[in-house]
Amino acid sequence: MNATTTLTKDEVGILLTAATHAPSIHNTQPWRFEIRGPVIDVLLDRKRTLPAADPAGRAARIGIGAAVLNIRVAAAMLGHESSIAPDPDPHHPEVVARIFLADRTTPAPPLARLYGELRRRHTYRGPMLDQIIAARVLERLDEAARAERAILHWLDAGEASRLGELLRRVDDTELHDEDRLHERLRWIGGDRSGDGIPESALGPVPARAAFVRDLSAGFDSPHRSQTVFEQRPALAVLCTPQEDTAAWLRAGMALERVLLVGTSYDVTASFLNQVLEHSTPRAAVRELVGGRLWPQMVMRIGYPAHPGHESSRRDWRESFDQWF
Length: 324
Fold this sequence. Notes:
Elements: H1 9-20, E1 31-36, E2 39-44, H2 58-77, E3 80-86, E4 95-104, H3 135-147, E5 151-154, H4 157-174, H5 178-187, E6 205-206, E7 226-227, E8 234-240, H6 245-264, E9 268-271, H7 279-288, E10 294-302, E11 320-323
Parallel strand pairs: 1-11, 6-7
Antiparallel strand pairs: 1-2, 2-4, 3-4, 5-8, 8-10, 9-10
Helix pairs in contact: 1-2, 2-6, 3-6, 4-7
């Protein structure tokens, strides 16, 4: 696309609506956008970060990476190849990623195949069916991660058991962490529209120990039912070879690509990232996956036993700063 070419208002709406469907920690949606011709800057919105749970901004950048992948998918649907520059301007560190759109091509780029999954994908926090994920589907998920320079490490039974021990310790610690509890109250529970996670999307309360994160633990959530969750879910740790801000962005793109490919096979996921929000447990997870890769996301993956409830998203115009 010529540098003087501008996107139409309809194209901007398609691209940024796609971005808003990305997952982010506590559905904070920590991004803003600026557009100049065929170039889209994705900025960190510091008002939507979590100082207690995510002091380094790692999770926020992963969420931004997921939004970047969604823009690339929508751009492909419109016929544009795209390229990414992480942290493109040292004088403006709030610009996390710069997306360059090429001229339209025919046929549409391969990422376009995932466009139909953008609105279908959502985090599912209920129990999974007792159904093994087919080997060919696991291979497609692995390929999706590798396409964005990340690796999915699938946990065996022994590794899952050790992860369960880490989760129980972290969950107990967080029940006594007032800073984190107060931070969650801003974003989780109750009736919400636009951002955060409403009570209806939290899923049922686990009736016994399970591989599921109860985001309302520590405060009242009176309308949720209780249920027994599966005891042996498929668990995967999304890892990157490096550990820096560019790797976090790449992890987000890999995460969303994995989730969209999974959605195309009716596979869904929820997250167990509390073990990565504390330095010592995260180091333990790193050892769990071999000690050479950096764990960025922990996922519980499977086929949902019940319909899930989505968290709402802000209108794209609320996160759109400038258009040149």
